[in-house]
Design brief:
Layout (H helix, E strand, L loop, with lengths): L2 E3 L21 E2 L7 E2 L9 H5 L5 E3 L2
Antiparallel strand pairs: 1-4, 2-3
Length: about 60
């Protein structure tokens, strides 16, 4: 399992709200660009998936 950011669903026009809910600081965002997941830090808790109002965080199939 791998969590990804679907850039087509991410509006990329605001600070990503999921950044602050990540318990291990695995989500990085430069400016308003789509966030990037640091897979070395990610513990796959899925909080980002639950918290993203646009549904941009997804489990890669």
């Amino acid at each position: 399992m791998k969590i990804i950011v679907n850039k087509d669903k991410c509006p990329q026009n605001h600070p990503c709200p999921s950044v602050r809910v990540c318990p291990v600081d695995a989500i990085i965002q430069e400016g308003y660009k789509a966030p990037i997941i640091d897979y070395d830090k990610c513990i796959q808790c899925k909080k980002c998936i639950t918290y993203c109002p646009m549904g941009a965080f997804e489990i890669e199939q």
